[in-house]
Structure formats: C-alpha cells, structure tokens
Design brief:
The complex is a heterodimer of chains A (401) and B (340). Chain A is mostly helical. Chain A folds into two domains: 14-69, no CATH class; 87-400, Cytochrome-c3 Hydrogenase, chain B, CATH 1.10.645.10. Helix content of chain A is 49%, strand content 12%. Chain A has 16 helices and eight strands. In chain A, the strands form three sheets. In chain A, strands 1-2-3 form a three-stranded antiparallel sheet. The radius of gyration of chain A is 23 Å and the shape is globular. In chain A, 49% of the residues are buried. Chain B has 340 residues and is mostly helical. Chain B has one domain (79-339). Helices cover 67% and strands 0% of the residues of chain B. The chains are: A mainly alpha (401), B mainly alpha (340). The A-B interface holds A 4, 7-8, 11, 37, 39, 45-47, 61, 149-156, 159-160, 163, 219-220, 223, 225-226, 228-229, 381-384, 386 and B 42, 45-48, 142-143, 146, 219-220, 222-223, 226-229, 231, 302-312, 315.
Chain lengths: 401, 340
C-alpha cells in the first residue's frame, strides 16, 4: 500500500507541474498547449450528498483546484426564527438543519433557550435526551458510513447500514411518532414520555448492534480495496484542521482529541464513561479519509456504551418542567455549543424580552468542515474528491440553512 | 450443424444467416434473464427482496423495463454530434456480438470454426472500445468524455494480461481453434485445463478472469462508468432504446468473456463425467451452466467490492497482472520443455 500511495503522490505533483509549464515536444519544435478544464460536479451529481456544486479545475484526472458553491438549499432559517411567534415554534425548523440527526439539533437549541430562561429540566428528561442524541449519532454515522461505501463503489454496506438504522428509527418512531424530523425535545422538556418497553427495546438494540459494527468492519472498513482508496488520501493535518475551525470526526480524524461532551460537558455527559476515538493513521497517515471514517465507526461503539449506561440509570419522573406556555426570557444573549454527529453545533440566541427570539445564529459544523475541502483536494484525483467529500460527511440542510 | 442445414436448405446465404442468428437467440434472453438475476442476487445479498410485483418473484420485470425503454423519447442532446451519437451504440453492440462468431456453444455448433478463433476474439473485442470512445466523445459531455477515455485506457491495458493468460493455454494445446481446445479437454473432470500443469493454468484462469472483469467494466474495475464519480460515464447522455442497446452489449460482453473462460479452462461443452451426460444438447447445457457460474461470480464481486481508483487500476494491470502472466508463460514453457 505504501508503494502505491507514494507513487500516486509523486505522480500527482509531477503531473500538476507538467500541466502548468508545458515542455517542448521533441520533433514538434514548440510546446504543446495544455489547458486546464473546468468541470462542474453537482448540483445534480450522485456523490455530492445533496445539492452542493463543486467547481473542479482539472488537469486530466488531477484536480488543480476546487471551489465549492453552496446555497441551493438556502431557506432563511435564521430570519424565520425571528418571526416565529414563540421560542417553541423554532424547534421543528431546527430539525431541518442536519436532517439525518435531527435530535442532536433540537438538543442544542433546547439547552440554549433553557439557559436563557435559567431553568433546570427534570433528570428523566436529561437522560432521555442523551439517549436520543446518541441514537441520532448512530443514525447519522450509519448514513455517513453507508454512503461513503457507495461513494467508493461498494453498494452492499449501504443497505446493511440502512437496515441497522431502521432499528433505531423504530424505537424513535414508537416514542414520538416521527422517523426523520421529530419535534421531540421541546424547551423545558420533551413532547412525549417514552413508552414502557423503551428500556427493553433499547437494551435489545445495543445487543443487536455491536456485532453489526464488526460486520461492517469485515465487509468494508478492512477491505483491501477500500483501504487503498481511502488511506493516505485527503490528508488533513491537525494544525490545518484547527486553523480552519473543523470539528467533530473531521477534527478527531486528524488526531486532535477534542469532543465537547468531554471538553466542555453539557447536559449530563460528565456522568458517563466513554472514550474519544481519534485518528491514528494506522493504514496511512494521520488525518486521511480512512481515519475520519474509522473515527465514526468507533464513535458508534462509544454511543452504544453511553446508551447502555443511560438506559440503566433512567430515573422516573416528569418529562416537562413547569414553565408557562408562552415563555418570555429576560433580555440577554447566550451561546451554547453541543457535539452533534457532524461536529460543534453552536446556537447563539439573543432575547429582547419578547415572546420570539430577537436573533438566532447557528454555527454549523458542516459548513466549517466543508471549507477544508479545497485545502485538501488540491493535487488529488477526481475519484479522491469523491472520497474526501464523503469522509467530511456534509449535510446541505445545515450548510445552507 | 452447417452441413445439416446445407442439406436441408441448399442455400448458402440463408444457412450462414441462420448460423449467425443463433447466438442472438441466446444473447437476448440471456440479457433479459441476467438483468433480473443480477437484481435478485443483489437484493438477496443486501437483505432486500428485489422486484416482486411483475410475475413470479418479478420474473418479467426486465421485459417491462425493455417495453418502457422502447416507448421512451429518443433524446439526443443539442450539443451532441448526432451522427456519431446515434451510431455508437450499434458499434458497441456490433463488436460485442461479433465475438460470438467463435463461441463454441456445443460440439455441433460454433458460428465459425476458424483456426484463429481466439485471435479473432481478442481483436474483435477491441472494437467495443471504438464504440465507447464514440459514445463518450459524441455526447459532448465532460463526464462522458472522462468515461470514454478511461475505458479506452483500461481496455487497452487489460487486453495484454487477457491475451497472455490465453497464450498460456494456447501453448499447452497448440492451437487457436476453440473447438480443438474443447476437444483437447474431453474426458473426465481432471482433463480440464484448470487442473493441467497445476498450478500454472489455474493461475492463468485467475488472471484471465480478473482482467476480463476490467474488459467488461465490472466492479472492482467499473471505473469507466463509475456511478459515484462520473455519473454514468460514457452512457450518461443516452436514453431509451440506445441506452438499452449499450446495456445489452454490456451483458452480452459479460457472457462472451465467461464463455471464453469456460472454453479455455473448464472444458467448454464437455461433461464433467466423461461420456456420461454428453452429446450436442448436453454440451449446450454444460457450456451455458459453466458460463452462468462465471456470470454469478462477476455479480457476486460487483455487489461485494468497492471500486479501484484509475491509477490503482493501471497499477494492478501493468505491475501485477502482466508480470505474473509472463511468469506463467515461462512456467508453462519450462514445464513443457521438461516434459519433452
């Protein structure tokens, strides 16, 4: 593998240089004119994970530059929030940010408004929220890993991931009736309590799911071709990742041990024992696509750990704190950041003392992570752009808002 | 078969036309079946059911698909070179179908029993590349062009290991004639070339099969039409019946390379039990079942493996398969010298 990677890298650099300074062709007497080609990847392209457009400037198969164009899914989320008649009405909109992990978004927003209101939610709510957020993490990572397999041309792992995802969605559906956009974590509590068989079902899922991670590893993660395609490709050095403000698996894939659940604990995460997996460059170099992929695989294991601990300790109690139906937080501002499956999701909420928020600003992890793409794509091949983009795991709903 | 027909009809042109049509009688039902089969195989591998509504377990799904494709509008992009664009699918299918001229379906039937059959097969299968290049270039789409260029590079590179692996068999048997190769393997199972000069010809089969996957653009070498990179590769812009024709030639190509693998290594139409269950009709049965076994492996790989990158594909071709096939040829040669 080392040989291929080395050959590939040297070849790329040499070819890029050759494209810029055309050498005289012997016998022709003049330099052959070589031009770079602009090619649009997206917005209708199978592996841009939504309506992202990448403007690739290519020299044959080699990518000289990448310019991402976003905004195809812009729907004025932040402006809408200011015109909601109360804080509660923002929650369904928040769902539509990172729509594959809607619970995590609601979690962040709920914490932010509760901090603004200076209220404490019941213990039971905290536990259920953590379980749901970790469920969301598993669902999001399953989609990320499955579609990453698709990007690499492996079809079957995607369907296996979807099959496992279905089990989580069934539990969530039984709890709140929805499978994608939940509107479940309300300000001050939850929309519904969990069903009586929730704990049993969750335990059964954890038991079912662990061997499935091993199955995914056997089928995809340690597949020779998959490693060839991802290891040593799209290396994001730790300092670059930090400079760009990357977060989540993208940052941890580069070997930086930074997880808000540990580094800036919110809710009740400090009560659980879990590891923060980081990229170690086992198959290639630290910060390559395989590392980012593998961080997600390990994070799913850790999420199962957290769920198992939380479900055992789940206390009895109410799932709504006693707050008035129309809440009017005191004038002020708050910034809350939470660790969603994609990275650091921040909510900056400003209140002017009325029923609706004065300003809601979102710090989306995908948007920031996407900005690293041009930096790591230069000099790679077209197929690598697909690999890199897939390993960043973007959701356009959150980037465009 | 030719003599029988000549006695019956007394018209050479009619007889030759009939002989030429016979493979089509196989290729089209095969493609219809293989598309359905691939869907079912992939579905069952992926914990799904696949088509279930049209007929028993969706068995007439492909016919419905073909009807849909026939009825679709024939779209030619405004920017495309319409003459080339229209011609390309026929060239591709023509090349793919021409290969069947030397495929020995049975002891009694081969389209043309020429003494350079294998040579003809290798050369005629390259015609497909011309068609693919035409399709990619005429579409006037950058992604299609990428697909076409990749497939040209790929097929040209992988023809060398294919030819070398075939050469190993040719050295053993001493002829390019596919019927003669079949006859040389008659008898019991262990007379098949896969077990001869062990393990050299066994590895020749592996090299041939791997390289033939690249020749017919199947995973892990489906780089020319890499869905997640190039959208659809050279057939991105094709719709309706022209697309169906490209699809049909892909499937007929799949069977053609499997048929050659069957003939060269698995005894072709020979029964595995010597004279038991052998004869012209049993020959057809054995030949098609062995061919279908290869098709199954191709599908199995497709739904299991990821795809290589274009430079890795070249690496595998030039730095792995070609050196190894040279070693094989050397090994077979030394063995034959020693046996003298």
């Amino acid at each position: 593998m080392d040989v291929t990677v080395a050959v590939h890298k040297e070849g790329v650099l040499a070819d890029v240089d050759a494209g810029r300074k055309p050498a005289a062709i012997p016998g022709l007497g003049r330099a052959l004119r070589a031009e770079e080609m602009v090619i649009n990847m997206g917005p209708q392209h199978p592996s841009t994970h939504g309506v992202l457009r990448l403007e690739l400037i290519v020299d044959g198969e080699i990518v000289v530059d990448v310019v991402p164009h976003i905004g195809y899914l812009h729907r004025c989320f932040e402006k809408h929030c200011e015109h909601m008649s109360n804080y509660q009405q923002v929650v369904p909109y928040v769902d539509r940010l990172d729509y594959v992990a809607a619970m995590s978004n609601e979690f962040g927003y709920a914490i932010a408004v509760e901090k603004l209101l200076k209220i404490q939610v019941p213990e039971r709510v905290e536990y259920i929220r953590v379980i749901m957020a970790e469920f969301s993490r598993i669902v999001s990572h399953l989609i990320a890993l499955g579609t990453y397999g698709l990007d690499m041309g492996a079809f079957t792992p995607f369907l296996y991931c979807m099959r496992d995802r279905e089990h989580v969605l069934d539990i969530i559906e039984e709890t709140c009736g929805a499978r994608l956009l939940y509107n479940y974590m309300w300000v001050g509590g939850l929309s519904h309590d969990v069903k009586p068989n929730f704990q049993d079902k969750t335990r059964a899922f954890c038991k079912y799911f662990r061997p499935k991670i091993a199955e995914l590893n056997a089928l995809l993660s340690y597949n020779k071709i998959f490693i060839e395609r991802t290891a040593g490709v799209g290396i994001l050095p730790p300092e670059v990742a930090i400079n760009y403000g990357a977060s989540g698996p993208v940052l941890r894939g580069s070997g930086v041990k930074w997880d808000l659940r540990k580094n800036d604990p919110y809710s009740i995460y400090n009560r659980f024992a879990f590891e923060i997996p980081v990229g170690k460059g086992i198959k290639g170099e630290v910060g390559d696509c395989w590392d980012r992929y593998m961080v997600r695989v390990h994070e799913m294991e850790q999420s199962v750990n957290i769920i198992e601990q939380a479900v055992e300790k789940l206390p009895a109690g109410d799932v709504q704190s006693a707050i008035p139906k129309r809440i009017r937080p005191e004038a002020g501002e708050v910034y809350v950041r939470t660790e969603t499956p994609k990275g650091e999701l921040g909510f900056y909420v400003v209140s002017d003392g009325t029923q609706s928020p004065y300003r809601v600003k979102v710090r989306p992890p995908c948007f920031v992570n996407l900005s690293t793409v041009p930096a790591i794509c230069r000099g790679s091949m077209i197929a690598d752009v697909v690999a890199i983009l897939g390993s960043i795991d973007i959701v356009l709903g959150e980037i465009d808002r | 078969m030719k003599d029988v027909l000549l006695n019956l009809l007394h018209n050479e042109i009619l007889v030759y036309s009939l002989m030429a049509i016979v493979p089509l009688v196989w290729v089209i039902p095969f493609a219809l079946f293989a598309v359905w089969w691939e869907r079912k195989i992939s579905a069952h591998m992926q914990d799904r059911l696949g088509p279930m509504r049209t007929g028993w377990h969706g068995s007439t799904q492909t016919i419905a698909d073909i009807l849909k494709l026939i009825m679709k509008e024939d779209i030619i992009p405004t920017a495309a070179d319409s003459k080339l664009f229209k011609l390309a699918p026929y060239v591709v299918f023509g090349g793919a179908y021409a290969a069947y001229a030397v495929v020995p379906f049975s002891a009694a039937y081969v389209g043309s029993e020429i003494n350079v059959g294998l040579f003809y097969f290798i050369s005629i299968s390259s015609v497909v590349v011309v068609g693919l290049l035409m399709a990619g270039w005429a579409s006037n789409n950058k992604w299609s062009l990428y697909g076409a260029l990749r497939s040209a590079a790929q097929i040209v590179s992988y023809e060398i290991p294919v030819a070398l692996a075939i050469l190993a068999v040719v050295m053993v048997v001493g002829t390019f004639d596919l019927q003669a190769i079949n006859r040389a393997q008659s008898g019991m199972l262990w007379n098949w070339f896969i077990f001869q000069k062990f393990p050299f010809l066994f590895f020749a089969l592996i090299i041939y099969f791997t390289a033939s996957l690249a020749e017919v653009n199947r995973t892990p070498f489906d780089i020319p039409e890499a869905e997640s990179e190039l959208v659809g590769g050279y057939h991105t812009e094709y719709a309706g019946m022209r697309f169906a024709l490209l699809f049909l030639s892909e499937y007929s190509n799949m069977f053609a390379v499997s048929a050659i693998a069957t003939t060269l290594f698995l005894g072709g139409w020979n029964s595995p039990f010597g004279n038991f269950l052998s004869g012209p009709w049993w020959g057809v049965f054995w030949f098609l079942s062995k061919g279908m076994a290869f098709i199954f492996v191709q599908m199995w790989l497709r739904w299991t493996l990821p795809r290589l990158r274009v430079d890795q594909l070249m690496y595998v071709g030039w730095k792995v398969l070609i050196p190894f096939s040279f070693v094989l040829i050397l090994g077979v040669g030394v063995w034959m010298l020693a046996a003298h």
